[in-house]
Amino acid sequence: MKGNLQLKISIAMCTYNGEEFIREQLDSFLNQTRLPDELIICDDRSNDNTIQIIKEFEKRAPFKVELIINEKQLGSTKNFEKALLHCRGDIIFLADQDDVWDKRKLSLIEEKFIENDRVGMVFTDAAMVDHNLNYLGNTLWESISFTPKAQKQFPTNAFDVFIRENVVTGATMAFRSKYTDMMMPFSEEWIHDAWMAIILAASKGILIEIIDKPLIMYRQHSNNQLGAVKRDLKKKIADAKTKKVMKNTQYSDVEEFLIQNKVNVKDNVLQMLKGKQKHTEHRNNLPGNFFKRTLKVAKEAGLLHYSKYSNGYRSIVKDILYK
To answer: What topology does CATH give the domain 2-219?
Structure first.
């Protein structure tokens, strides 16, 4: 670390009916080798014992705990937006209520921010575990096919990765709080972590770092809002038949946000967003006829748009076989 510099760290946590797992997550904050300076919890009107558990934890925590109970339910994205706006640290970590953090998480991520003041966001891998924290045999990055080739594009070319697919999971990420206002308000068309990642990656002068270590146990259970369980071939085929491409408007939302807020973007970002939007429209409007569809996909592939804006051959095969 540079001169033993320490940054002020906030954890922003959102809760809703989390009584089954939240104690383990809160205890993992206590077990950090580098304790946080504050924990901000926004509860979305839980009707179980979540609030009581948090209040009991507050009494024994050696750092500030602030509990905010929403007057009305906001939903996950708006609840995180609210929690982030209440944080006062230099670095803000996002936390779900049902995971368990590696004891080194805060310290290892803090080091990345201290080493380079251009780093605006850091995210890590995660160990996939079941309801009882038993290892499922794979990591989060393996589950979402975040390949070593894509990983090598960080920290300088993160936008090229995010324009193809979001590979950031909020529970594994942290960012500099000075960029909070720059990302607000979150688009209703996006999950909060994907929105934050692409806005920061689009911004000139901001780097996004990765840590190739599973620094949380990412619990998979029936009440997950989002999950990333490893899929076998049969499951992948079934998903391909039903999975929809992103909405046409999602990337135009990003473009409009960047322009309206006068964000100083990296070269070619706006051009790439327009290209992504056109490519998304292409994928969402393929003809039902197999041969016509194949010709259209082949033309788009010939322009290298599937490799630039989607997942290459995997997206090509999906679009040809599963309309």
So the answer is: Spore Coat Polysaccharide Biosynthesis Protein SpsA; Chain A (3.90.550)
